[in-house]
Amino acid sequence: MSNPVVILGIESSCDDTGASVLKEGKIHANIIANQDVHKDYGGVVPELASRAHQQNIVPVVHEALKSAGVDKSELSAIAFTRGPGLLGSLLVGTSFAKSMALALDIPLLEINHMHAHIIAHFIESEGEQSSKPQFPFLCLTVSGGHTEIVLVETHLKMKLIGTTNDDAAGEAFDKAAKTIGLDYPGGPLIDKLAKDGNPLAYKFPHPKAPGYGYSFSGLKTAFLYFIRDQIARDSNFVQDNKADICASIQHTIVVVLLKKLVQASKDLGISEIAISGGVAANSKLREELMLLKKSEDWSVYIPKFEFCTDNAAMIAMAGYYKFINGSFASQATSASARYSYGD
User: Fold this and answer.
1) Under CATH, to which class is 6-123+307-325 assigned?
2) CA-CA distance, 82 to 39, in Å (whole number)?
3) Is the pLDDT of residue 1 over 60?
């Protein structure tokens, strides 16, 4: 009888250090160490992030193995985020994964972080089952650094058909939040405040981009000027209208995101639709997506909240499909801040 496939997943692309253990296709542990230090700076500071990863990675991996009841000698392979992301952060995870794999004499599995966000739809925890998208499907992946529409043909074959020409939707959320004095990360705070606001209170421009592409830099600038002009007329404008402001900017971003997704669905004749990435946790995006499910006759898939934000379970899951396909990496592999779907 062959030994079960046991994979350790390591995620260190930005400011969360994650380790997860997958056994026979099921996630048995998923541990994440967050970094609060960045709140004081209004965004992630790369040098501080890489230092925190160095402090966190050993205890996080130890806790994941302990929680899963797995000894390191039982591991079949180690999957790690090669990119894209912050180079200093990626180097910590990559170096650790390579060293551990070398010491244990087991294979390495290099994972594209954005690929893994999509594979999060196939995560199953021990004792659980969930519906999964059928191939081919379209996935809108939205995070702080990326906004993409991806045609997913298999677990390993994906084609990027639309991306942002400048800023990502998650960055637009965070910069809007910073403009009105909210803490970092601002996206979840805007989502929370927007629940009590009117999404049609203020109108903001809908950026135009060719094809299935996106552009959010102009929207960020328009929002900044709008707030500046309103404060010039009334110094209490933001404080008195914060919920409406948040609801309106959130509504604009969500409408822009979904308009391109609807167009891609119609053009390609695909009604299997998924979303992923940190912004996939946004309640307005989820709400509007469910409305489109009815009006467009879509089958819609949204990962659990814990698998939307950066996590190692999605790295381990993506590694599992690479493992059974025999797609191993060599010890010569290195971290890559830019890592495309074709690499």
Assistant:
1) alpha beta
2) 26
3) no
Question: Tens digits of per-residue pLDDT, 156-172?
Answer: 999 999 999 999 999 99
Where are the domain boundaries for CATH 3.30.420.40 in the chain?
6-123+307-325, 137-302
pLDDT at residue 40 tops 80: no
Res 341: pLDDT: 66
pTM: 0.94
pLDDT at 73: 97
pLDDT band per the 50, 70, 90 thresholds, residue 234: very high
CATH architecture of 137-302: 2-Layer Sandwich (3.30)
Residue closest to 142 by CA, chosen among 122, 161, 166, 118: 118
> What's the CA gap between 162 and 150, in Å, rounded?
7
**SS3 per residue for the chain:** CCCCCEEEEEECCCCCEEEEEEECCEEEEEEEECCHHHHHHCCCCHHHHHHHHHHHHHHHHHHHHHHHCCCHHHCCEEEEEEECCCHHHHHHHHHHHHHHHHHHCCCEEEEEHHHHHHHHHHCCECCCCCCCCCCCEEEEEECCCCEEEEEECCCCCEEEEEEECCCCHHHHHHHHHHHCCCCCCCHHHHHHHHCCCCCCCCCCCCCCCCCCCECCHHHHHHHHHHHHHHHHHCCCHHHHHHHHHHHHHHHHHHHHHHHHHHHHHHHHCCCEEEEECHHHHCHHHHHHHHHHHHHCCCEEECCCHHHCCCCCHHHHHHHHHHHHHCCCECCCCCCCCCCCCCC
